[in-house]
């Protein structure tokens, strides 16, 4: 039985099936995303959503959906499902679904009387092409299949509406058509690997409603253009392939291509393999460069997310080549940033004060999980240059204080840490000055940097880093450790944050920490009692007057909850690592129980992956981006870390 399988009972119950989403990517920025019942509920949903760099740096929905209609004895059974303004569903094709599973690729089985039809959907690797394979599993009489494409040709940030500017013309290509609704867009080629008839029947389907957008406080309706439909006969046991792409394809190759793309996927047959499959979707390649997308469906490649997520996404699965490809791109950005030049690659937020410190941590993980000597040869001079650059006071967002700690000014005017939500241009969580995780990263980087440069015979620099680490260690305890045993979140002159937040957990998780074993236990105790949930660490303790755990409502309301009590799985990854580091094998069973909460999530929200964040209060609903790189990466890293503890 498939791991990710949903039967008729769930699929025909829209209250259960409609909130569940599926996501597939093509590893070059394009994706396909909708709900289990193929009813779009977001403006980001679509069967073929691709970047169009000639227009902007956003993704664009070209093919929104594709309705299949089974025809027997003149009777038509439309398998599609759309929701329209007012909440009405039409044509309610979900009632014919008998099961859905996603072992290799999303597969839906329909039953209409004596007809059993299987639909498998996949994106071609590194191409902007959707492939759908329809197989007539059973039928007792002549059967016709009709495919009706719904086109949008718009940015994921916008909606389309009926207008007189849309180009309604098309041209015939091999067993299909090509069309382009607006200037600047590429042509969309829609083809079938079987002789078929395209019936030109242009029309707009008006007021299609997206409930997720309405929930988020946005407009939620648009009009979709249907140019006509493809129609062909299909025999019992026969498979027919539909392709939608930005280039014409030889339809004789579609069957072989579909078979290859289905079989090359990592089977999603257990918890870890689902995470691996999800991890693969974040690594994208474009213009010869490799990137880590922060999440789907709206995030781009952000520097901090890249360095935090990269080890878990790649090294835990022994995919060193992917790690190296991304780091090659990232090193260009780092060196150009330090030289004051344009980055030259599509990585955002490189200027944030903690980014280079996370880059050091990322390199450190490579040395731990693969080959320390190879790490030194590959990244030794990059690490040396980053540390010297920061210590020379050249980072625009950091000041090396006389006490050996890093001071980050400007956090009251602009968000400078991962807690980056803002309102009217000002940070909702203004963190400035000596920031706890930045200085935990700094101490770890000093110690690790000294270890690295010592091996390339930079003895003077190594001693300088060691001396700085000793000074930073003493100052860290003086500045952050309070009389209650936990760490202040930030200290800026006479202003200090006594709120219990998860940023102190990194000090317990890193290889090098200024805290003693006893101090780590006390910090972890506060995290456990006030921040731990089954879905991650809360961003703020419920004891705080600012606690706001429910990430719901319009954008402004969600912004105020974003880092004020919501739970984040990637933080729990560091928490579990710290727990194992402090308590050893005696806490393996505790960590295993914590992982159950993340395995459960694979069957909700976006199946097979982990969303961006969760409400901080029960029942801990998943919220935000439907698939988030740092969350997947950190849970993968903990799973592999557990394997090491279980070996002994």
Output the keywords.
648 residues; alpha+beta; nine-stranded antiparallel sheet; eight-stranded antiparallel sheet; 17 helices; 35 strands; 33% helix
Detailed description of the structure:
The chain is of the alpha+beta class and about 650 residues long. Helix content is about 35%, strand content about 25%. The protein is built from 17 helices and 35 strands. The strands form 10 sheets. A 9-stranded antiparallel beta sheet has the order 1-9-10-11-12-19-16-15-14. Helix 13 packs antiparallel against helix 15. The radius of gyration is 26 Å and the shape is elongated. The model has no long low-confidence stretch (mean pLDDT about 95).
Outline the fold blueprint.
Blueprint: E1 5-7, H1 8-11, H2 14-17, E2 21-25, E3 31-35, E4 46-51, E5 59-72, E6 75-78, E7 82-84, E8 88-90, E9 97-101, E10 107-112, E11 115-123, E12 129-138, E13 143-155, E14 171-173, E15 176-179, E16 188-192, E17 197-209, H3 211-215, E18 221-234, E19 239-245, H4 254-263, H5 271-282, E20 283-286, E21 289-292, E22 295-296, H6 303-314, H7 320-338, H8 355-369, H9 372-391, E23 399-400, E24 406-407, E25 422-423, E26 426-427, E27 434-435, H10 436-455, H11 459-480, E28 490-492, E29 495-496, H12 506-509, H13 517-530, E30 532-533, E31 536-538, H14 555-561, E32 567-568, H15 569-583, H16 588-601, E33 613-614, E34 622-623, E35 627-628, H17 629-646
